[in-house]
Design brief:
Layout (H helix, E strand, L loop, with lengths): L6 H11 L10 H8 L3 H13 L3 E3 L5 E3 L2 H10 L4 H16 L2 E8 L2 E8 L14 E3 L4 H10 L5 H13 L2 E4 L6 E9 L5 E10 L5 H21 L2
Helix pairs in contact: 1-3, 5-8, 6-7
Length: 230
């Protein structure tokens, strides 16, 4: 049976996805370039999205995200009080390590920073909640792939098995040459995979000793959270 799809819905969601890189506003021409849609199609979709608060069009003609995505995001982040537990753990990780602590979920072929506590150092790796990053690059991406992707090759299978056996992943300059990170899987009390806990910072600050320290902090945080996520 063919997968059922609603083309109009997918186009509307594609329009919203055009803002996924954090662009504060986009012109009609920019939306057309990013989505590949005709301008007339964008205007038709935008009217419906504006009606429900997903888009706002300013007097300058530029489009911005409306309040509806933020409202839904807040509901999702705080479901079952898990958000409060994870945020508290991220604050403890940040304070114990001085690095930026974050929690990632897989979003299709990307990863989304659902929660984060930025380092309080003046020079740091700064993240925004809701940021979408490549799934195939970075420590958190490796963890997400190992737990959510069926390996297509023997090399991928061995890499996933090794990560799950070791219980952590490290990246050094993969997505950004100046950023390094360590990540571990977060499981709930039933053993179900929830996402990736990550500590990241400037690569120059991530010595081998710091990586080991961050790994141990993350493992401890994940173990404590697992008992709480029921």
């Amino acid at each position: 049976m063919a997968e059922e799809r609603v083309e109009a819905v997918e186009r509307a969601l594609t329009l919203l996805e055009a803002f996924a890189d954090g662009a504060p506003q986009l012109s009609l021409a920019e939306l057309a370039a990013r989505t590949g849609f005709y301008k007339s199609t964008i205007l038709r979709l935008a009217r419906s999205l504006e009606r429900f608060g997903y888009l706002v069009r300013g007097d300058d003609g530029a489009f911005r995200l409306g309040p509806a995505p933020a409202r839904l995001g807040a509901l999702y982040r705080d479901r079952a009080d898990h958000g409060g537990l994870i945020r508290a753990a991220l604050r403890r990780l940040r304070d114990a390590s001085s690095f930026t602590a974050s929690f990632y979920l897989r979003s299709g072929e990307t990863r989304t920073c659902l929660y984060r506590e930025n380092s309080e150092r003046e020079i740091r790796h700064h993240l925004e909640e809701g940021a979408r990053l490549p799934l195939t690059l970075g420590a958190a991406g490796k963890v997400l792939l190992a737990y959510t992707e069926k390996p297509a090759t023997d090399t991928q299978r061995r890499a996933a098995q090794k990560l799950r056996r070791d219980g952590y992943a490290v990246s050094q300059g993969e997505r950004d040459p100046f950023i390094a990170a360590v990540a571990v899987p977060l499981l709930d009390a039933g053993g179900a995979f929830q996402g990736a806990l990550c500590l990241s910072g400037l690569a120059a600050q991530f010595t081998e000793g710091q990586k080991e320290h961050c790994r141990d902090l993350l493992r401890q945080a994940a173990a404590e959270l697992q008992d709480q996520l029921r």
